[in-house]
Amino acid sequence: MQDGQVANVSSAERRRSSVLASYGALDAPREPEFDDIAAIASEVCGTPIAVVNLVDTTRQFFMAEVGLGVRETPLESSFCAQAILSEDMMVIPDATKDPRFDCNPLVTDEPHLRFYAGALMKTAAGVPIGTVCVLDYRPRDLNESQIRTLRLLARQAMTQFELRKAVVERNRALKTARETERRFRSMADDAPAIIWVTDTDGRCVWLNRGWYDYTGMTKWKSEGFGWLDAVHPDDREESGRIFFEANAKRIPFSLEYRLCRHDGRYRWAVDTGAPRFHNGVFEGYVGTVIDIEDRRQAEMRREMVVRESSHRLKNAFSIIQSIAGQTLRQAATIEEARATLPARLLALASAQDLLSQTENPAADVRAVVESAIRPYMTEEGRFRIEGPPAMLSGHQAFGLVLAVHELATNAVKYGALSVAGGHVAMHWNTDPDGTFEFTWKETDGPPVSSPSRRGFGTRLVERTTALYFDGTSSLDFDVTGVRFRLLGKLQSE
Amino acid sequence: MTQTKRLGVLVVESDPLLLLFASDAAADAGLIPYEARDSARALQILNQDERDDLGTIFVDTDLAERADGMDLAWTVHRLRPDIRIVVTSAGRTPDPKTMPPGCIYFGKPYNIYDLMSLLREAFSASAD
Fold this sequence. Notes:
The complex is a heterodimer of chains A (493) and B (128).
Chain A: H1 2-7, H2 11-22, H3 32-45, E1 49-55, E2 59-66, E3 72-74, H4 80-85, E4 89-92, H5 105-108, E5 115-122, E6 128-136, H6 144-190, E7 194-198, E8 204-207, H7 209-215, H8 219-222, H9 233-249, E9 253-260, E10 266-278, E11 281-291, H10 293-330, H11 334-356, E12 362-364, H12 365-373, E13 383-386, E14 391-393, H13 394-413, E15 423-430, E16 435-443, H14 456-468, E17 472-478, E18 481-489
Parallel strand pairs in A: 13-15
Antiparallel strand pairs in A: 1-2, 1-6, 2-3, 4-5, 5-6, 7-8, 7-11, 9-10, 10-11, 12-14, 15-16, 16-18, 17-18
Helix pairs in contact in A: 3-6, 10-11, 11-13, 12-13, 13-14
Chain B: E1 8-12, H1 16-28, E2 32-36, H2 39-47, E3 54-60, H3 69-79, E4 84-88, E5 104-105, H4 112-127
Parallel strand pairs in B: 1-2, 1-3, 3-4, 4-5
Helix pairs in contact in B: 1-4
């Protein structure tokens, strides 16, 4: 029967064992509270042995004992294992006369135990976990007062175990709570944003590390309403108003303001807050602040580029309409207009190319000039181009292309390029102070006479080019060849 | 001075080509163009010799990428309320509240013939 008990641990036993384990008392060090209970039991009952005993499935553990000198014994020879099966009090006056124990080695051999009395320790749910018991080497009995005391001691021991368990559970819960708190705080601190919390009056009660790193402010300066000091003075009033309005209505809000970074620079930030409620009761707000300066700058640049492109496009259309209008109006014949207009528009387009090539357009004088005369470079040696490397701003390149185009067109029609053997020389020079001089000189062409009426192209060369260079220009219809001279300043873009 | 003598048009435009075209348009409309590429030059012309033949100013609001053309329009309105103001721009149509009273807006891109008839109309209005 004893073997059977060990081998067949019932499910009720397993449940009891796990309840027992939940007290965390097995193999625990000695504690004076339990020692006292064992001492009182021994004293009151007048027995040499008293034990506060926890009964597990395969062994019993002595939380406290008097007169034994060991802290655990196997279950086979246990009296208490029997007690666990009985109601709540078991008394064996003489074990040699009890069929349950007359074969027990503790009875038949050393130490020849004779008397046993045990009171059950039961949890509030009625699960027995052990006993408070007394033993003697001679047969005897207990009076009612002794039995009642033993019962009370068992209850007292149980109460001690409950207290102990409560403390263990509370400590475990506290540790979990601390760990959860630590984890959330580190999440909040390491989040790539500023996080803040306010109370019901709108006072700031907590800010994450992001805030302190960003603003360089101290805790005592930031909490309460001190954080408003980091908001740009011009944005402070409006920001405060939006926040307090939302706070009064308990509604989410989002606002933008300039926030002072630790280096003293104000940068645009977006502040978003949402009300916190616990069981329907308003507790304040939680919110984030995110630096949007870079995004805002990019947006502004994009807007500027769009606006700029629209400007350029409309200006370009105005120029095209004007060129078309003037060309058509001044052409002597429709054939002439038919030839002049596309060439002019083409020159305009190639000049526009120079402007739109890069974001910060600049071009070398030689490249600009060559692009303007490319359609007229029909044979070698007609043009002589000389000058040092010099960069023109986009606008100046545009102006020079138009001028050279008109000069070349005129030369092909009436000047040096209208006959074989005629030449055009282009020279330019720059000074360290930015002075720019450009000349166009035709030689070996037919004799030149001043035109009776200044055409559109001529006026364009005479009047407009100088404007691009903030300087002066002259166009001479010298009898030996057309001469153009421009004197101005290079623009540094 | 009589009203009918006021043939002068002050053209204020920072783009050299557009300046040339607008002033040509004024000349072709039978008026006398004066050219300026910025506000400072425009005000100089306005104050020069009590330039009282000026009847109209045609001004681009975006002078050399600075939006001070509208400021110039207001200055002209204050100094010479008798001058008709025509404002042009490659940007958005300005809010009428930002323009001086009686000011006409003529957006880019514009047709040169439309500009000519506009300037002629402005001239006859100032001659009334």
